[in-house]
Structure formats: C-alpha cells, structure tokens
C-alpha cells in the first residue's frame, strides 16, 4: 500500500483493517504529513512492533536529493530527486516577497511534445503518485527549514494527463490535518486538455488554473504544441469561460515568446480578440532556448511591445520574473543533463 497517498479517512479504515486502533492513523498521518518524517523508524510514539511490521509491508514514499543547485543570484534552489525506482524528477524552490514557492513535477517525462520544452524530449516514462508529488514539497521544506506557502504544478509533466493523482495530491496538500497550504495558493498549469478543465471546474476548487496558450490561432499553435491538433482554441476558451463561471477564479494564460514566431503585432491583435471579455491574466515568458531545438527568445523590445500593446487593449499582463537564471532555470534541463 502506498500509505502516504491515503487521506486520513482512508488511513483510518486501513489501520482498522490491519487491527490497529483508529487513533494510530492520526498519529501516523501527523508523522507523514506534518512532521514530514522520512520513515517508520522515526515514529517514536508508535509501538516498536507496529513500526517494524509497517516497514516490512507498506510502501513509504521517500524522495532523496540526488543533486542540488543553489542560485548565487537570488537563492533559488533547484533539486533533482531520485524516486524509489531509479527515476528522477526535478523541483524548484523560489523565494518571493509573498512567501516561498515550490514548483513540482507531476510526471516522469511528458508525452505532450511541446516543441520548445526539454521535459518532453524522451516522452513519458510514468505518472507520479500523489505521495511523490507531496514529497517534493516535504523534502524541500525539511532541507530548507522554511515554510512553503505556494505550490505551482508547472514542472515536468502534464498534470491533467495524471488527473486523479493530481486531485488526490491537491486534497492532501490542502488538508488542515496536513501541511494545510491554502488552495488559493496552488496553481496548476495545463497545455489545455479540455475535458479535464470541465471536470476541474465542476469540483469548484479555488485553485488558480493556468493555461499554456503560446499562440493566438490554431494554425500558429499547432506549430508549437501537438495538443492543438486535438483541441481547438475555441474549445479551450469555452472551457475557460465555464471554469470562471463555476469558480469565480481568474484564469492565467501563459504565453512563451518565441522570436519571429508568436511575438508579432499580428499575434497581439489576434490574441486580443481571442481573450476579449474573459476574466484573465496574461503571463509572458521569454522562451528558454534548449539545445535540441533552434527556437530563439524574443528580443527585449519585442517582449515589451507585446506587453504594452496588450495592456493598451485592456489586459492585465506581467512578464515572468526569471529566477535562477544561473542554475539551469529552464524546464527539465537539470534532469536531462543528469540522465
Ligand atoms: N504541462 C503543463 C505544465 C508544465 S510546463 C503545461 O503545459 O502547462 C510549465 C510552463 O512552462 C508551460 O507553460 C510550458 O509551456 C512552459 N515551458 C516549457 N518549456 C519552456 C521553455 N523552454 N521556455 C519557456 N517556457 C517553457
């Protein structure tokens, strides 16, 4: 049993099944999700024979730090974690004025194939379990000794391609008996898997939903993102409107700027008509070039032009502040190099 992926109710039922008193579940849960301990051996208020037995029969997810890079510029820390089966994922710890933020991975690799992204070059290896998503945050909290208040699911992987585990993760990380991170401080980013946007909307969680848009028309988007062959922008925008209506939350659109490809004035007017009237925020990300592809980032002038004109058209726009530029800041690059 992947015991760290169970919620408290399930854990109580499971402990009862194993003929332990139900209160043991609460103790176990606290060790795992509040004290963030690294194994049954540390759970000193549990009887020794119980700890022994659990360690023989249960799976206790525990990620280990395989590599770590600390930015000399801004203190951002990039972690490479090794999973129990020899796979690796990466996560990033960032300090902002509003609190500490961790960016986690949701899969080992990715099968979405976005052309500019390093995480998808070798395809998908497997999904992460809920406990493997949680433990990225737990290990970083323990390693830094600092409270994590924001989580962004924007590392390697497509969270909506691992939807059930993502939802389980979300429930556990926001649980008041666990780390109790505010649901409003969690952002999940998707390349736009339309049925899952509706499914998430129906759960009416106060999550921040980020959509990786990256182009203003289907034709232009297909050149960058294969998923655009499956779902049209009209379908994505329809799902976003539904999400806003159901949750009252503003949508974030991510737009990675690639020189000469999606940063033109034509793109600005197309994007403005596409998003007109939608309660949203546009986050511009100058693309991080990866060596396997020849995409170049937009010039500073093009980025500012893009921002200014969108603002003139009434949109709320930010340029992603880049942290950890000196430590393989770009998606999936540390893992790729290491493997
Ligand atoms: N699969 C999810 C989340 C992971 S990627 C998604 O597609 O949203 C997080 C964001 O980084 C996405 O917007 C993604 O398109 C973007 N991204 C990936 N590689 C990038 C690169 N090299 N430069 C700039 N943005 C990149």
Report on this model:
The protein is of the alpha/beta class. Helices cover 35% and strands 19% of the residues. The chain has 11 helices and 12 strands. It has helices at residues 8-17, 23-33, 48-57, 130-144, 163-173, 194-203, 218-224, 233-247, 265-275, 300-312, 333-338; strands at 64-70, 77-82, 88-96, 99-103, 107-109, 124-127, 150-153, 186-190, 208-212, 251-257, 280-286, 317-319. The strands form 2 sheets. The chain has a 10-stranded mixed beta sheet with strand order 1-2-3-4-7-8-9-10-11-12. β8, α6 (194-203) and β9 form a beta-alpha-beta unit. It is globular and about 70 Å long. It binds S-adenosyl-L-homocysteine. Residues 112, 114, 116-117, 154, 158, 189-191, 212, 254, 256, 285, 287-288, 290, 330-331 line the site of S-adenosyl-L-homocysteine. S-adenosyl-L-homocysteine is lined by residues 112, 114, 116-117, 154, 158, 189-191, 212, 254, 256, 285, 287-288, 290, 330-331.
| Beta strand count | 12
Describe the sheet with the most strands: 10 strands, mixed
Mean pLDDT across every amino acid position: 95
- Sequence of strands across the biggest β-sheet: 1-2-3-4-7-8-9-10-11-12
Radius of gyration: 21 Å
Oligomer: single chain
What distance lies between the first and last C-alpha atoms, to the nearest angstrom? 29 Å
Ligands bound to this protein structure = S-adenosyl-L-homocysteine
What's the structural blueprint in terms of helices and strands?
Elements: H1 8-17, H2 23-33, H3 48-57, E1 64-70, E2 77-82, E3 88-96, E4 99-103, E5 107-109, E6 124-127, H4 130-144, E7 150-153, H5 163-173, E8 186-190, H6 194-203, E9 208-212, H7 218-224, H8 233-247, E10 251-257, H9 265-275, E11 280-286, H10 300-312, E12 317-319, H11 333-338
Parallel strand pairs: 4-7, 7-8, 8-9, 9-10, 10-11, 11-12
Antiparallel strand pairs: 1-2, 2-3, 3-4, 5-6
Helix pairs in contact: 1-2, 4-5, 6-8, 9-10
The chain binds S-adenosyl-L-homocysteine.
